[in-house]
């Protein structure tokens, strides 16, 4: 059993490793990387910041560590993702052992969690994975601690659970669900065993109190820091969005789907299952639920709780991420409910652990009656030599002894064989289906304009150290202008740049192309500095001087080409009238300096910063910097 479980986890890590190393940094990753490059690790500006509605200091800290260790190195980041996935898989295995014991049917729920495509999109994207994987770890670990606390009363499980809960909250605010989920798992594990669930929940009180204190402390900080990036808007058709999330995303994924993904650059892939496949999945899910409810006692509550969690997971995305055509694609991307994989795994384990119902026993043949393989408690005693041990199990709290486990050479193996045979074919089909969906997702996710761009910049940047580069926008399919100013090169490339790589003024205008090459550039003549009144000089600048343009300019990011003659080396400050100044170095003689300006108006203001400095400014363009294509 241990060897089979280990082999399954290793196989999952191999597949997930291929997924991870096929990808690259994407979108929000560059915002986070630029942010962590500007602050020390323990600064409040870094850890207590709101990113797109998220407060996640531990996720930010992990990004900081990876960036400092290997700037913009995807192999290192991918290795970290695989490590986090290993922790999540081990946490789920621990939970299943707690719920079911070391028995063959544990492999079914484990196989489901390890390979279900539901978790793949969130795993492949760094910014999503550092949220989703700690949540999955916490759901499994804290639930296992809660069950063990209710069984044994040992307070160390309360301490362990509260600590992991705190770690999860500091990684992702959605981790508020961890404590309620753990409470429900304790209740359901007692309920399906036919024992009072209220008593079981009461015995876990130490964890509920400790976790509640953690939650209150976290909530106080969260409410002080959180910022909504935009106002809330009501979804136009929440029913249709919920239907698409279930039919195109969640339900097919439970059966190894969606098998087919669509992607329009630069969006992430979204599930696009064939219509017939969606219908088949629903036709399988509904009878499966009905059959398990009829054949297994007390599992209706398990199905209801799983359905409630699914809807509760989808609803915030519909409300908080609504936009024209946006919410539907986000829901179909499936990364927002990757944690449902853990919930479904727990539900499957509880259903398999439930006793057979009276109706199922009445329908069985006489020689099969009483041979139910589902006991109230996991048969961990099955790991021991049967000729020497006779074990007695108790209730979840140890107050009511149950029937003795049978011993002897024929008590377990023959009864488990029919179950193994029954589930072998569906398990193999699910595995093949899941692998196909994972492969098709990876093929869709692999093309990366960002990889081309960063690779090119990394190769050419050292050779461009003779003069600084003006900050510019990165290609729109790496990070679009809506992210300004985080989409500027001095933010995105900060981890691999030196302090002199970027500046607001430069004597040589160059730009970075979409493929990462550094080429000479020029300034468009959107507007021009007008000829000055002084012959052989143009505009004489001795103090703060207004230099008119040949027309007004709207407020935005512009580049001014200042052609000047200086009587000595020095510095000048350039701005639009009333806007922020940009400081530029000037050299003695006839030269040119390119200055990045943010603002607008119909005149530039030039001010020497050195005493007695004088210079002449001639005609030159003010406009958009561009390079030949």
Largest sheet: 9 strands, antiparallel
Mean pLDDT: 88
Over all CA atoms, what is the radius of gyration?
31 Å
Report the portion of residues in β strands: 5-15%
**Structural class by secondary-structure content:** alpha+beta
Shape: elongated
Treating each run of at least 4 consecutive H or I residues as one helix, how many helices? Answer: 21
Query: How many DSSP E strands?
Result: 15
Question: Which range best describes the helical content: under 10%, 10-25%, 25-40%, 40-55%, 55-70% or over 70%?
Answer: 40-55%
Total of domains: 3
* N- to C-terminal distance: 61 Å
Q: List low-pLDDT spans.
A: 366-377, 379-417
Q: How is the topology of this model organized?
A:
Elements: H1 2-22, H2 28-36, H3 44-47, H4 57-69, H5 74-100, H6 107-115, H7 120-124, H8 126-152, H9 156-169, H10 178-192, H11 197-203, H12 205-225, H13 238-254, E1 261-262, E2 270-271, H14 275-295, H15 300-320, H16 326-333, H17 340-353, H18 358-362, H19 413-445, H20 449-460, H21 489-492, E3 505-506, E4 510-512, E5 518-520, E6 522-523, E7 527-528, E8 539-541, E9 545-566, E10 570-576, E11 582-586, E12 589-608, E13 615-617, E14 621-623, E15 625-626
Antiparallel strand pairs: 1-2, 3-12, 4-5, 6-15, 7-14, 8-13, 9-12, 9-13, 9-14, 10-11, 10-12
């Amino acid at each position: 059993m241990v060897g089979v479980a280990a082999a399954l986890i290793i196989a999952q890590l191999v597949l997930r490793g291929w997924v991870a190393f096929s990808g690259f940094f994407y979108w929000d990753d560059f915002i986070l990387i630029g942010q962590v490059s500007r602050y020390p690790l323990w600064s409040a500006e870094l850890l207590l910041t709101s990113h797109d509605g998220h407060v996640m200091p531990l996720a930010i800290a992990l990004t900081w560590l990876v960036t400092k260790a290997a700037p913009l190195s995807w192999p290192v980041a991918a290795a970290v993702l695989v490590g986090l996935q290993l922790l999540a898989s081990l946490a789920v295995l621990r939970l299943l052992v707690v719920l079911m014991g070391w028995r063959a049917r544990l492999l079914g729920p484990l196989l489901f969690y390890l390979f279900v495509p539901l978790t793949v999109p969130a795993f492949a994207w760094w910014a999503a994975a550092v949220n989703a994987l700690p949540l999955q770890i916490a759901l499994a670990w804290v639930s296992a601690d809660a069950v063990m606390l209710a069984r044994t009363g040992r307070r160390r499980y309360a301490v362990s659970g509260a600590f992991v809960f705190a770690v999860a909250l500091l990684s992702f605010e959605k981790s508020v669900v961890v404590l309620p989920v753990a409470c429900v798992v304790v209740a359901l594990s007692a309920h399906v065993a036919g024992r009072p669930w209220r008593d079981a929940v009461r015995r876990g009180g130490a964890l509920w109190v400790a976790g509640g204190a953690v939650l209150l402390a976290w909530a106080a900080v969260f409410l002080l820091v959180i910022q909504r990036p935009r106002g809330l808007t009501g979804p136009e058709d929440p029913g249709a969005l919920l239907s698409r999330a279930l039919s195109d995303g969640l339900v097919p994924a439970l059966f190894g789907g969606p098998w087919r993904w669509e992607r329009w650059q630069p969006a992430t892939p979204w599930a696009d299952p064939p219509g017939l496949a969606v219908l088949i999945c629903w036709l399988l899910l509904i009878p499966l639920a009905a059959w398990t409810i009829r054949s297994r006692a007390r599992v209706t509550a398990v199905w209801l709780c799983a359905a409630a969690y699914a809807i509760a997971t989808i609803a915030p995305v519909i409300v908080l991420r609504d936009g024209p055509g946006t919410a539907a694609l986000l829901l179909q991307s499936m990364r927002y409910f990757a944690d449902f994989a853990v919930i479904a795994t727990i539900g499957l384990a509880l259903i398999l652990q439930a006793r057979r119902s009276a109706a199922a026993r009445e329908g069985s043949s006489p020689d099969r009656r009483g041979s139910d393989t589902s006991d109230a408690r996991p048969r961990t005693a099955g790991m021991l030599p049967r000729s020497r041990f006779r074990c007695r199990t108790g209730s979840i709290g140890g107050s009511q002894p149950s029937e003795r486990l049978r011993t002897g050479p024929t008590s377990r193996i023959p009864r488990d064989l029919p179950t193994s045979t029954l589930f072998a074919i569906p398990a193999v089909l699910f595995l093949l289906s899941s692998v196909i969906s994972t492969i098709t997702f990876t093929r869709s996710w692999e093309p990366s304009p960002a990889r081309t761009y960063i690779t090119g910049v990394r190769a050419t940047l050292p050779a461009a150290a003779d003069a600084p580069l003006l900050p510019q926008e990165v290609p729109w399919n790496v990070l679009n202008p809506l992210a300004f100013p985080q989409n500027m090169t001095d933010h995105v490339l900060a981890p691999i740049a030196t302090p002199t790589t970027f500046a607001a003024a430069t004597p040589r205008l160059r730009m970075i192309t979409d493929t990462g090459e550094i080429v000479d550039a020029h300034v468009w003549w959107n507007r021009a500095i007008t000829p000055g009144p002084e012959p052989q000089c143009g505009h004489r600048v001795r103090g703060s001087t207004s230099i008119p343009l040949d027309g007004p300019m709207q407020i935005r990011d512009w580049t001014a080409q200042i052609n000047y003659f200086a009587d000595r080396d020095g510095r000048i400050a350039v701005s639009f009238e009333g806007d922020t100044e940009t400081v530029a170095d000037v050299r003695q003689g006839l030269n040119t300096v390119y200055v990045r300006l943010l603002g607008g108006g119909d005149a530039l203001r030039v001010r020497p910063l050195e005493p007695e400095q004088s210079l002449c400014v001639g005609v030159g363009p003010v406009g958009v910097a561009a390079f030949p294509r």
